[in-house]
Amino acid sequence: VFLPLPLPRWFPESARWLVLNNKSDEALKQIKRVATINGKHAEGEKITPETLKFHMHKEILSSKTMYTALDLVRTPGMRHITICLTAVWFSTSFAYYGLAMDLQKFGVSIYLIQVIFGAVDFPAKFLSTASMSFLGRRVTQGMCLLISGAMILANIFVPSDMQTVRTSLAVLGKGCLSSSFTCVYLYTGELYPTVIRQTGMGFGSMMARVGSMAAPAVLMLDEFLPALPGMVYGAAAIIAAVFAFFLPEMLDIPLPDTIEDVEQQR
Prior knowledge:
Elements: H1 15-20, H2 24-37, H3 41-45, H4 49-55, H5 57-62, H6 76-100, H7 110-119, H8 121-134, H9 137-156, H10 163-191, H11 197-219, H12 228-244, H13 259-264
Helix pairs in contact: 6-10, 6-11, 6-12, 8-9, 8-10, 9-10, 9-12, 10-11
GO molecular function: transmembrane transporter activity
GO cellular component, one term: membrane
Protein name: Solute carrier family 22 member 6
């Protein structure tokens, strides 16, 4: 836990932060360094402090404005993004922990299924990363939730003695939910503008925590109908997939810096 503590002192500050804090020369060094790493050394050498300030004029002005959590829903574009991401964050965590906390129903060793559930996260995260780069964020996010919801609902109709099939469907659903988590973390950071990005990330993470708290309560519904928890988890994931498909695609799109940028992208 304590070993990484000294590392931040070697992390470079972002060029944006340096410019906003009147350290344009240091910002220029960072930008030229990044340009060289990206094979754009000649282009980087052409940048001057004046050019940097000119292109960041809007950000310099917006930095003087105080932003709160209310700005996540103040304008139509921000409101649209926040509502959709709330559904995605909540349902991903809700279904993920709902599956993880109901291992005994698969009829195999809970220790074995726990190992399998943990192991599937690794390939799932790699696949989602590749998918986001080729298919885009929106398709990856929506399909992960849609497939996971379908797997959870399909498991309801599989007889309890078909343990292999039930376990396979659950593992596939869990893997897709893990992929959904990977995607939504990146997607949220790209959708929200720089001036309020961390507030948006924090709000989304909070919605995920609410989903994880609600998940165990749903398991008690099996006293009324054994299939009911699975129906709720599966339906939540599918509904969230619909919301995800209404989000704007961010693959190869410049990240918004201000709320005005978000509104212009609509």
